[in-house]
Amino acid sequence: MAKIFFYGGAKSVTGANYLFTTKKHRVLVDCGLFQGSHFCEPINHEPFQYDPKTIDCIFLTHSHLDHIGRVAKLVKDGFSGKIYSTSATLDFTYISLLDAAHLLKEDEKRHKEILFDEHDIEKTKKLFVPVDYGTEIPLSKDFSFILHDAGHILGSAFVEIKYKEGDKDRTIVFSGDLGNSPSPLLNDTEKLVNADYLLVESAYGDRLHNDILKRQDLLEDAIEDTFKEGGVLLIPSFAMERTQELLYELNALVEEKRVPKIPVFVDGPLAIRMTEIFKKHPEFYNEKAAGVVKSGDEIFNFPGLHFTMTSSESKKINDVPAPKIIIAGSGMLNGGRIGFHLIRYLSDKKSTLLFVGYQVAGSLGRRILEGEKEVFVLGGRVKVNCNIKKIEGYSAHADRKAILNWIGPMRHRLKKVFVVQGEDNAANSLACGIIDEIGVDAIAPELSKSETLD
Predict the structure, then answer these.
(1) Which ranges of the chain have pLDDT less than 70?
(2) What angle separates helix 118-125 from helix 87-104, to the nearest 10 degrees?
(3) DSSP conformation class of 394
(4) What crossing angle do the helices spanning 215-229 and 242-255 adopt, rounded to 10°?
(5) Looking at residue 42, what is its pLDDT?
(6) 346, 376, 247: which is closest to 302 by C-alpha?
(7) Distances from the Cα of 132 to the Cαs of 110, 155, 180, 275, in angstroms?
């Protein structure tokens, strides 16, 4: 009997980690960090609930840390199989793990051991196997997989696994994270019809994105308001995808002269390295973005844009008078250079803190969004006096309606849907929606539990 084990991502947005077993195969889909108020929660240091040496291979849906952040630990603990994903995801994963290893050195103070180091990452990289979208890869005569474009971030995929159960052909799909289409840079999420079982994300399973088609206009408004006030527009942004989407749209706003001249700083080495990988992989762009590049436009460069790689360059941003825009990591305010800018500008009534990404429960970003007026930043108290804004249209996640529309074409064959990668309310709400609106059995599984497939 085939079984799924939910070792992460159950009733939680982070820590995605699913073990799928058949009579002959044991494969993993994703192996991410659990994140919340800390960059790395204590649960990440616990032993895996399976023996990494017994795993045949792992499929990585995309390169966000909550999906790839423990892969090097898996290798450290004995995994030696192949790691399959798209070429862009594997490039991003390598850079992300190196950056995470640097941040995880702080864990030695709290946990007395580090999760993984550069040596483990280099061993991990040797196991990488790039796979193109739509190519069926057989692992045996009774087991194969195909990666499809998820439209979430550059190179993201959902995984279709075909296997035999006795004399019957079966298909199970792992959604990874689904994209918030249409995207400025990416193709729309690919549709699928034939699946017997589905694991689907639910980060926004209980809500809708109201401003997806207005996001550039809302960004323009935020820039103009900050310019008039003479303040700083501070945008905490994930180094991958969100930063590049912002640069793409800022490039358009500048070239079309829709915003006043204002210096823009991308403050962080990781975001800069990620932007270089974006430049390396235009084959993953949508037709419009690819056409802009072919026309000779540098979509990640425009007058007034500055990349600050070193800490000394970062400090010099303070010398530039307002108004100005600072894009810095991390996206949920739980690390990176954003902290230094928060200390300086969070209490400034003329400035604006603009959120363009999901804020997980317990994170500093979530607490500020929920109205906290005084917060701890880098060990000190800071009053929250600046303007707080959020543009949900920049979310890289599909909302409730988009998820249900994506599942809809599979309804005639689907036997069961497992709703994962969402907080409790979002996961349960989406499961109810799947039952009521699509007519397919659905549950939000518990962490560390398993399900047997017929």
Answers:
(1) 37-40, 106-112, 211-213
(2) 170
(3) G
(4) 70
(5) 82
(6) 247
(7) 41, 9, 22, 21
Write down the pLDDT at residue 363.
87
Q: What's the CA gap between 147 and 101, in Å, rounded?
A: 28
**Rounded distance, CA 424 to CA 191, Å?**
26
Tokens of 140: 């045996």
CB distance 183 to 286 below 8 Å: yes
Q: What residues form DSSP beta bridges with 29?
A: 18, 59
Q: CB of 72 within 8 A of CB of 80?
A: no
Domains of the chain: 3-207+396-452 (3.60.15.10), 215-394 (3.40.50.10890)
The Cα-based distances of 307 to 199, 351, 356 in angstroms read 39, 21, 20
Contacting residues for 427 by C-beta, under 8 A, at least 6 apart: 11, 202, 205, 419, 420, 421, 444
Residue 109 is predicted with a pLDDT of 64
Q: Which residue in the block uniquely carries the two structure tokens 């044991």?
A: 26
Q: How far apart are CA 43 and CA 147, in angstroms?
A: 30
pLDDT for 17 equals: 98
DSSP assignments along 355-368, one per residue: E-S---TTSHHHHH
* CA gap 454, 439 in Å, rounded: 19
Contact 105, 125 (CB under 8 A): no
What is residue 38's predicted lDDT score, i.e. its pLDDT? 64
Where is 294: in which H helix or E strand?
helix 287-294
Q: What is the pLDDT of residue 112?
A: 63
Do 367 and 357 form a contact (C-beta atoms < 8 A)?
no
Produce one character per residue of 20-43: b if its CB has 16 or more CB atoms within 10 Å, e if not.
Answer: bbbeebbbbbbbbbbbbebbbbee
Q: Rounded to the nearest 5°, which phi and psi values hold at 395?
A: -60, 140
d(CA 34, CA 91) in angstroms, rounded, equals 22
Q: Cα(180)–Cα(167) distance, rounded to whole angstroms?
A: 38
Type and span of the H or E element at 66: helix 65-68
CA distances from 27 to 23, 176, 312 (A): 12, 15, 45
- Token pair of 219, please? 């960004």
Prediction pTM value: 0.89
Which DSSP helix (H) or strand (E) runs through 269? helix 269-280
- Tokens of residue 105, six digits: 């050195």
CA distances from 296 to 110, 194, 249, 300 (A): 50, 41, 16, 12
